[in-house]
From TrEMBL:
Protein name: Glycosyltransferase
Domain of life per record: Bacteria
Lineage, uppermost ranks: Bacteria, Bacillati, Bacillota, Clostridia, Eubacteriales
C-alpha cells in the first residue's frame, strides 16, 4: 500500500465505526522512512508503539553484521571497512529525526531483555520508554522426550530453521563434516523447508502454512531429537525456534554471538553456549562427554512448555477510549506513487533478511 492508501483505509474504517485507537509500527525495513513519518504525523492524539523487531534503528544493516560476516552488536568492532558505513550516517539521521518527531507519545517494545539492553546502548535517552513484552506465553509442561539416551542408541542431532549463513547453517555443515570420519554414533537431521541437501543429514519438511503453527515442535517430538543446533552468528532479537526446541525437550547448542538465543539458553539452563565454532566441534567430537551432558539435562532439567500461546499484552498499551484525529482527505495515488510502492515491495520481498 502507498502512504495515501493507508490513510484512505483508516478514513474508511472510521466512517464504518471502526476507530483507530493507536499505531503499532512492527518494523520499517525497506520502507521509505519519510513516508512512514508522514503517515504518523497525520494520525494524531493516539499512542505510537514501535516494536524492536530488528536493529534497523541502529544501522542500515538490521542484523548488525559487519560486511554480513561478523556480528558487531556489542559495538566492539569498528565500522571502518564495512560496506554499510557509507550509507549509515544518512540512514541514522533519518531514523533519529523520525523518532524525535513522536517521542512525546512513543513506547518501544522489545521482545526480550537482551534486545532491550542492546537497543538502549544505542539509544540511552529512550531507556524509560522501553519495555519488554515477549511474543509468547508458556502454558503447562511437556514431559515427553525426557528419557536418557541409551549408550547403544544414536544421539539425534538436528539443525532447526533457515539454511542461511547468519543462522549458522555453514557451522552445522562443518560439524557434520568433522563427525563423518570420527566414528561417532550420531544421526543428523535438518528441520525446515530449505532445499540444500547434505550427505549424512536427513531432511524433515517443516512448513507452518500447511502443518500448523506447532509444526516445528511436533516434528522435533516425533523424531525424539536429543539436541538442536541454534548456532546463529548474529544478535537475534527473538527466536521462536529456541522456544519450540525447548517445548520438545531438546538440548540446545548455541553460539555466544547469537543474541537472544544464548541469552535465553544461559538464563534458563536450556543447553550449552559455545564461544567459537572450534569449541563446538570439539564438544561434538567428544561423544562420551556430550552424551553425559545431554542425558543429565534430560533427566534433571525442568520440562519444556506444553504449548506456547501468542502474548497479547501489547494490546494493553492502547485504550478503547482513544480516538485518532486523522488529518487527511481522501486522495488518489499518482502514477509515480503506485510505481514507487510496487518497486519498494518487490525489493523488500527479494532482499528481506528475516
Amino acid at each position: 500500500m502507498t502512504a495515501k492508501e493507508v490513510l484512505n483505509t483508516l478514513l474508511e474504517f472510521d466512517k464504518a465505526g471502526k476507530i483507530c485507537i493507536g499505531i503499532l509500527v512492527h518494523h520499517i525495513i525497506r520502507n521509505d522512512i519519510d513516508e512512514v513519518k508522514w503517515i504518523l504525523e497525520k494520525i494524531e492524539n493516539v499512542p505510537v508503539v514501535y516494536y524492536l523487531h530488528d536493529f534497523y534503528t541502529c544501522c542500515i544493516n538490521p542484523n548488525l553484521m559487519k560486511n554480513d560476516i561478523q556480528s558487531c552488536i556489542d559495538r566492539d568492532i569498528p565500522c571502518k571497512g564495512c560496506c554499510y558505513l557509507g550509507k549509515k550516517e544518512e540512514h541514522l539521521e533519518k531514523i533519529q529525526h523520525f523518532l524525535r518527531a513522536f517521542e512525546n507519545r512513543i513506547t518501544f517494545v522489545a521482545p526480550a531483555e537482551y534486545t532491550k539492553e542492546h537497543w538502549i546502548a544505542f539509544y540511552p535517552e529512550y531507556a524509560d520508554k522501553t519495555i519488554v513484552i515477549s511474543h509468547q506465553k508458556a502454558i503447562g509442561e511437556y514431559t515427553g522426550n525426557k528419557e536418557a539416551i541409551l549408550s547403544d542408541e544414536p544421539l539425534r542431532l538436528g539443525f532447526v530453521g533457515a539454511q542461511k549463513q547468519i543462522k549458522g547453517w555453514d557451522i552445522f555443515k562443518n560439524v557434520v563434516a568433522a563427525v563423518k570420519d570420527a566414528g561417532c554414533n550420531y544421526d543428523f537431521y535438518y528441520f525446515g523447508n530449505g532445499s540444500e541437501k547434505v550427505d549424512g543429514v536427513t531432511p524433515v519438511e517443516v512448513d507452518i502454512a500447511t502443518q500448523g503453527k506447532d509444526a516445528m515442535i511436533n516434528n522435533l517430538k516425533e523424531k525424539r531429537i536429543s539436541a538442536v543446533f541454534l548456532v546463529c552468528v548474529w544478535g537475534e532479537t527473538y527466536s521462536y525456534t529456541t522456544y519450540e526446541s525447548n517445548a520438545a525437550n531438546c538440548f540446545i547448542f548455541a553460539m555466544k554471538s547469537g543474541g537472544n538465543i544464548p541469552y535465553t539458553v544461559e538464563k534458563n539452563g536450556w543447553g550449552h553456549v559455545f564461544s567459537t565454532e572450534e569449541e563446538l566441534i570439539a564438544a561434538v567430537l567428544s561423544e562420551h562427554n556430550l552424551r553425559n551432558e545431554i542425558n543429565n539435562w534430560k533427566i534433571y532439567a525442568k520440562p519444556g512448555a506444553e504449548e506456547y500461546r501468542d502474548n497479547d499484552d501489547i494490546l494493553k498499551l492502547f485504550s478503547k477510549t482513544n480516538k485518532a484525529k486523522i488529518s487527511w482527505m481522501l486522495s488518489r495515488n499518482t502514477l509515480f506513487e503506485r510505481v514507487k510502492c510496487g518497486a519498494l515491495n518487490k525489493m523488500f520481498v527479494g532482499t528481506r533478511l528475516k
